[in-house]
Amino acid sequence: MTKTQKQRDKQIRAALTKACESIKDSVTDFAYLTHTVDLNNEANTLKVNCYFEDTIALNNADSEIEHLKSIIITQLTGIKLTIKPSHIVFFAN
User: Fold this and answer.
1) Are strands 30-36 and 47-52 parallel, antiparallel or unpaired?
2) Cα separations (Å) of 55 from 25, 28, 76?
3) Residue 91 · residue 35 · CB < 8 Å
4) For strand 88-92 and strand 47-52, is the pairing parallel, antiparallel, or unpaired?
5) What is the pLDDT at residue 65?
6) C-beta pairs of 24-28 under 8 Å, 24+ apart in sequence
7) Which long-range contacts (CB under 8 A, 24 or more apart) does 40-43 make?
8) pTM above 0.85, yes or no
9) Is residue 51 a contact partner of residue 31, using CB atoms and an 8 Å limit?
10) What is the tens place of the pLDDT at every residue in 57-70?
């Protein structure tokens, strides 16, 4: 990994950490999020997986899913990285 890629990875992780903390503050039983990305092709390969404590919590948040996606998209846009909403997926632990 090049120095530039390390810096970009750090930016992505920081943006997603902010998004995660924001979601945790607004949604009960949101657990965490993870991501995968090929730093040579960020826009097409970035995938974000979001996890709730259980199926009940996921179902309760169903009406807020689009808002949660927008929080993530907003944070990533702040570092000039676009992500397709379909690349953000929600699961129950």
Assistant:
1) antiparallel
2) 19, 12, 27
3) no
4) parallel
5) 97
6) 26/64, 27/61, 27/64, 27/68, 28/57, 28/60, 28/61
7) 42/8, 42/12, 42/81, 43/81, 43/82, 43/83
8) yes
9) yes
10) 999 999 999 999 99
